[in-house]
Amino acid sequence: MARGWKVVIDSENAQEQAEFWAAALEYRVEDQSPLVARLRAAGQLPDEAIVEHRGRLAFRGFAAVRHPDDPFDEESDVGLGRRLLFQEVPERKTVKNRLHLDIHSGPGERERTVERLEARGARRVREEDQGPAGHWWVMLDPEGNEFCVS
Description:
Elements: E1 7-11, H1 14-25, E2 28-29, H2 33-41, E3 50-53, E4 56-59, E5 62-66, E6 83-88, E7 101-103, H3 110-119, E8 123-129, E9 135-140, E10 146-149
Parallel strand pairs: 1-6, 7-10
Antiparallel strand pairs: 2-5, 3-4, 5-6, 8-9, 9-10
């Protein structure tokens, strides 16, 4: 039987990274504020485990994005399909990623996609043109994680 999965990404600011990647992938930031409020009201979640971000309650140190067409839990808004979870860690990124995401733009849309992501804080590193094997930009997200746009 195939297994469900999510990619977990260490970050300095989980909420901001979730917003960047939701925009980059055209995903949805999970809104877990009803779940957080319910757990808080029941005394199961202390105030120090909660943060407010853009008017929503969230779990401190965690944020996630999900594909808008995949199934999700209606009570928690947690995605049950393609999902990225950002978790805050105390150390900064120091070396090259061993895993990265490739964003596939539509035909003729690579440059527009790169410019859209730059407007959200991404940076170009280098352009790669491998002829028939592909043509892409290596980029860095706002926290310096490598990804590619093809």
